[in-house]
Amino acid sequence: MGRTGNLKDKLLPLKEAVGLVSDGSSIVCPSFGYEKVAFAFIRELIRQGKKDLYLYGSGMNVDADMLIGAGCISAAEIGHIGFENIGLAPCFRRAAESGKMKVEDYSNFIMTMRFFAGGMGIPFMPIRTGMGSDVIAYANPDHVIEMDSPFTGEKILAVKAVHPDFAILHVQRVDTEGNVSIEGPKYDNVEKAKSAKCLIVTCEEIVEPEFVQSQPEKTILPGFLVDHVAVVPFGAHPYACYGYYDYDWEHIETYAQQAKTLEGFQSYLDEFIYSTEDETDYQEKLGLQKILGLRSNASLGYSTYYEAIA
Amino acid sequence: MIEPTYSAYEMMAVVGARELNDGEVAFIGTGLPMLAAQMALYTHAPRLVIIYESGYVGCHNIHTARLVGDIRFMKGLTMLSSMVDVLGFLQTGVIDVGFLGGAQVDQFGNINATVVGPYEKPLVRLPGGGGANEIASCAKRTIITMNHDTRRFPKKVDYITSPGYLDGSPDARKKAGLIGDGPDKVITDLAVLDFDEKTHRMRIESLHPGITVEDVQSRTGFELVVPRRVEETAPPTEEELRILREAVDPTGFYIKRRAERKAVRAGV
């Protein structure tokens, strides 16, 4: 039986949706390309002081670093946590180097295919990468092993399905039947969403089913796979939401700079998370001018405002 | 008027671009390879198919992308796909060339992007490879780019994130089950290097202007193969510098940032 039912029964205020995640849960917050990440949900996880979460992911950035720095994560299975051209992820560095956080390193494809297997209802997937490297040498044999193909005898990697307790996804639109419709890249968000035992979707807005039906190729998940929905406009900030707003590069750089020291990281949390009651508060702190500047240009899907005035 | 002097970083971007051929299918990693790929597209390789693991196939972006998943790639994109799909391309052997950075590369072209020091208790915890392992495993050939110093060029990397020629033995990659042919070139701020066909050891191919074999060897943590005749790398032309500065990175996101970091390191 699917998770059918009216959207009314699935709608929750953000704080209540976050409240469903109990300490010790395993989570995945699809996050690639600084875009469509449920960042408001992540901020609220930090406000609510969640502990001992087990983090699954492929390519992760500021989102994972912030959760780790705030003490929410005790262990993770990852493909990557870093800021690409900005540099290393400072909180992840401190947690991993001190041994406070347990890390299993895989690659993005290994993790993506583990989510894929999870969402497909099969125990593992065979793939052709990872072999020969230390990714397999240091892999947990309960999660990733080499095997011979039962058909050809070729050496392949068997990667075990993952089923996180929660997947938390941010999207542009959900319709009144709970169907999820997006603009722009999908990355491995669908695989992650389908792998989880409970799928929570945060969205910019609720739309009529006719709107979704007018462009069905943009529907990535049917409503019967969605457990809970929270309406959180601007909920991906400081990341982008394609067609709606751009990433806030200045904010991301500020975070990267402050997070380099424990004191700096703490003052970031104090200023933007602990001293704000909710997302309305957070957005007021950012200011209307900042938010308007990030609005996507209609012909581009992103904003050139801050580049233009630089 | 284009300032004719150029930075080592600009040299690396231009040389990297020249390694990509028109019509090839190129799987590009983060950092300098992104600049080099776009540079190639704007110069000699307008039909280069640029792929990023985020699912972007055929990139012709008009604003400088800062990440491999940047939504700036949506403008001028040929095909919007997914990670499963494009990383799957690699496994079928259709990718001509992969282009990667990293933190360390060893004498057999193995790349480390995971930890410096022991894995269980790292001295420096690096991001991890992302999709680099699959690129290095499966692309027909791989180009690697890195700044040249002994820490970054150890005899053996602390952790093999992305496989090169592994232990260097003749069939090491094949025995491991890897389908790609392995590292082809290493582009640094001092030289272009390749690999000896028999021993798979790293070899000097060409030296950047003003650099000697001794300069390169003294900043490498293992003995390089030095052929009898070593060419000089052709410096960037004025046209190449103009395209790089005015079309590929007009806001200086990469070029200025690198110059600033260098100044900080030098204590300027």
What's the quick description here?
With 310 residues, chain A is an alpha/beta fold.
Describe the structure.
The complex is a heterodimer of chains A (310) and B (268). By secondary structure, chain A is of the alpha/beta class. Chain A has 14 helices and 14 strands. In chain A, 35% of the residues lie in helices and 21% in strands. In chain A, helix 4 (62-69) packs across helix 5 (90-97) and helix 6 crosses helix 8 (189-195). The termini of chain A are far apart. With 268 residues, chain B is an alpha/beta fold. In chain B, the strands form 3 sheets. In chain B, strands 4-3-2-1-5-10-11-12-13-14 form a 10-stranded mixed sheet, sandwiched between helices. Chain B has a two-stranded antiparallel sheet with strand order 6-7. The radius of gyration of chain B is 18 Å and the shape is globular. Classes of the chains: A alpha/beta (310), B alpha/beta (268).
Record the SSE blueprint.
The complex is a heterodimer of chains A (310) and B (268).
Chain A: H1 7-10, H2 14-19, E1 26-28, H3 39-47, E2 53-56, E3 59-60, H4 62-69, E4 73-78, E5 80-81, H5 90-97, E6 102-105, H6 108-120, E7 124-127, H7 134-137, E8 144-148, E9 155-160, E10 166-175, E11 180-181, H8 189-195, E12 198-207, H9 209-213, E13 219-221, E14 228-231, H10 249-258, H11 262-274, H12 279-286, H13 288-294, H14 305-309
Parallel strand pairs in A: 1-2, 1-10, 2-4, 3-5, 4-6, 10-12, 12-14
Antiparallel strand pairs in A: 7-9, 8-9, 10-11, 11-13
Chain B: H1 8-18, E1 25-28, H2 32-42, E2 49-52, E3 56-57, E4 79-80, H3 83-91, E5 97-100, E6 104-105, E7 111-112, E8 115-116, E9 124-125, H4 132-138, E10 141-145, H5 172-176, E11 183-187, E12 191-195, E13 202-207, H6 213-218, E14 231-232, H7 238-248, H8 255-265
Parallel strand pairs in B: 1-2, 1-5, 5-10, 10-11, 13-14
Antiparallel strand pairs in B: 2-3, 3-4, 6-7, 8-9, 11-12, 12-13
